[in-house]
Write a structure and sequence with these properties.
With 102 residues, the chain is mainly α. It is built from three helices and two strands.
Length: 102
């Protein structure tokens, strides 16, 4: 490494400037090559996830357990936040069991 430093010290101003331009150009080319490889790997991993199907941790939807008597398109599985139509039904004296499907 010391030999390299000595060679750099012996360069003329123009040679030194040319060396700096070469280093800058080489650094940018290497950075582009690294970025291209990273993008290629990311695309490969994305494709593998697409091929494998759904992501880990996703759960299938729970089947509907309750139905809104006013609008049969409104259903609820019994999990999560209770829908307003069920709250209204219960507040008006109805029973949760009245809304069971089947």
């Amino acid at each position: 490494m010391q030999n390299l430093y000595e060679k750099i010290e012996s360069l003329s101003f123009d040679e030194f400037e040319a060396l700096l331009r070469f280093i800058d150009k080489t650094r940018k080319e290497r950075a582009k090559a690294i970025l291209a490889e990273a993008q290629k790997q990311a695309a490969r991993l994305t494709q593998e996830v697409d091929i494998a199907g759904s992501k880990k941790g996703t759960k299938p939807a729970k089947p509907a357990k309750y139905r809104d008597p006013q609008d049969p398109n409104n259903t609820w599985s019994g999990y999560g936040r209770q829908p307003d139509w069920m709250k209204d039904h219960i507040a008006n004296g109805g029973d949760k069991e009245d809304l069971l499907i089947g």
